[in-house]
């Protein structure tokens, strides 16, 4: 296995130029410090332009929610900048001055096209289904932005829409997204791709154990986040909230280092990780590494009823302070339905997975089917991974994954995040009920009718059907 993996890895990286390997790995950081000498207006917003030097700690982010004297009172009216961008040759062109312009009004953000307002170059991006060679970005502005910043305390700057489909992310993704797209996948990788709260953690544990010959001892002693890292989690560690986590853990250098490790971009950490790598992501296919499907990596895509997804994600957003949601469920659902929440549009995300379901290196599964017949799901995943199981082994894995046992397993519950002050102890646990149809406890009749209409309208545009959506699929 090692020899074959080594040959495959060389093949995956064959397209990377010598110049790319030699290029300095200096990247823009989405920091919050203003460039020296640049002070935003104290009373009214106005257009600002400045040249910003780019080094290891370069600052891009000046649209900061008011916290101290060096703040911009209204995010939506500011714009920057012309700046030299120093990035690996495999990411963006490295010569000349690249313009990041955010026009007042629409705030159409274009990152780094040498010919004007275009996105970062990704000539091979079409392998994952993106048309063209650019990655357009647009800042969220106006009233939606103000409401979002009020309801989600973890983000202090703003939000950006990425690609033609407008995938929604916190501000840090404006500089980190090109690195995710240009990350080099390997043939020995196993990726789990989901919209959040679609049974991701449960499936991660199943996949890791199947791939590692049912090593239950390691699975119980080593946190799942270490065995199966979250590719883009760092994008949710805003500098201000990260600083608060560090201050909370001021008495423990070990805990502070744990915070810094989580805030370190996954594309850096995983680039140095030995094979085989197990990687979790919520990015849609068109924002995943451009060589993922051509490299030979295995990809499992998981889908789940959007109403159950929303209920589970609502609780996670209240639980974890990188998001820090403070509102009620109906308000949260409206963010979700109107594509004003992380990783939305939900339907575009699912459709990208559905379109690739016949790819030989992709396994598309519904969470509802996996929960209804877990033994069959275990067999299906094992076959996809090329693993043989005895009946006894399958039964032991099924018992390990039983939701009652799973909820008691500290290795999968992100227990360390409580100690670090990143998760609240007064909210439901990271692993909840895993229940199919639990949404009914949260939707009023009016909200259910609204949700059902939205689901029906979107299902009419696709031949995908949820196993447990009979009420809206009749």
Automatic annotation (TrEMBL):
Residue stretches in coiled coil: none
Pfam families: Sulfotransfer_1
Transmembrane segments: none
Keywords of this entry: Transferase
Domain of life: Eukaryota
Entry-linked Gene3D superfamilies: P-loop containing nucleotide triphosphate hydrolases (3.40.50.300)
InterPro entries to which the protein is assigned, alphabetical: P-loop_NTPase (IPR027417), Sulfotransferase_dom (IPR000863)
Domain Sulfotransferase intervals: 188-462
GO MF: sulfotransferase activity
Family: Belongs to the sulfotransferase 1 family.
Name this polypeptide is given: Luciferin sulfotransferase
Organism: Frankliniella fusca
